[in-house]
Amino acid sequence: MSLHGGIPTAIADDVRHGERLEWWTLGWMASVVLVMGLVMGSSQAMKAAVIEDVLSLVPAIVFLLSTHWERKQPDPRFPFGYRRANSLAFLVAATALLSVGGFLAYESVTTLVRQEHPTVGGVTLFGHTIWLGWLMIAALAYSVVPPMILGHLKHPIATRIRDKVLHTDALMQKADWQTGLAGIGGIIGIGLGWWWADAAAALFISLSIIKDAIGALEKAVAELLDGTPRTLDSNALSEDGEHLTAALRARFGDVEIRLRETGRYIVAEVDRAAPSVIPTAAELMGKTLAWRLASLTFRPQ
Amino acid sequence: MKQQLWPLPFALLALAGCDSLPRDASETTERMARSGEMRIVVMPATPDAATALALLGDYAKRHDARLTRVSAHGEHALRWLEEGKLDAVVGHFAKASPWQVEVALSKPVGRSEPDDAKQPVLRIARRNGENAFILATDRSIAEMTK
Question: Does A229 fall in a domain?
């Protein structure tokens, strides 16, 4: 690891674990898309669910790309390294989440306004014609399991490595399993003759996805505009940042301190001349989180 | 939320044992039983309509109804079907018919699906969302093709 490149040893294992989970996500979600595609028939609701599952692969892909770039060392063209790829990936992941929510809301509202009555007929398997709805419910039930488990596993890792892309991906997995459950409710609703049930359930879920996505987008934009570090799950200022500001003020008095985030790393700027002894990252952040402080700059008077 | 999901598998099992699924969104079958008639249109130039009519007649009979033929031409018939003024339209339709989204076209009646999706063959058009009626006719067509 160098000043602006590579992944700190303290979080290297967790990052690798996150990467393994993302490879698993790609495999499992591809199988979900395949199963759903096989049974979707002419159902618009199922088509929407398949498109949503394909879009949900975006955060996993951009996470893998961003960690690959994070490991690259700085070069003359990019002297500050590629760590900000994570910030860019975060913006892409948040946009993908917003697209899923927006698409779902659009599909649901269109179905409700046009009063489209979904047709789910019969399918002949091994000489027996059964209601395709049962196969759709089985496929949707399968689609719920992998994201529920993977999202649950990703969340604590995202918190430990302060990775907003992985955190957004955990949100995407939540969107996936919630949409799957809404889909099951919708197919049962269609079976009961309630043509609106599917769209109404999807609309309800889409509002929660859009809310999460807008929160993530606000943070992504703040990060790209060199805003003060934010927490993973809200737009509030991060505790790590506040802790660092307090530690710097304790040493240097009431001086102007500016913090920004480059990916998962904090960059600090103190408005005073450099002291004779510069504190270490461990002294300022504590041993466990020392890796987060990427650089500390003092300004000449 | 996860704690609130535990009844879901039980609800699904209960529904799986329920023969009354699926139901018609606009109660085509119930209306048929109430009024005693299934309103159908046979499109002009459908000389082989008899097999489809026999199949529809069986369904009507099971619900104490009989077939009532209504005269309508081409797109009028399909528009009426979409609006619920008809229960079924018998005619030659291609798998890739532009009407395939507006109405529920059945598989070919009495024959297998032709390789050319643009080739019109005998099919029954049903109103979208009338899933009990659609499943019942799908079953009868599958039996017939065996």
Answer: no
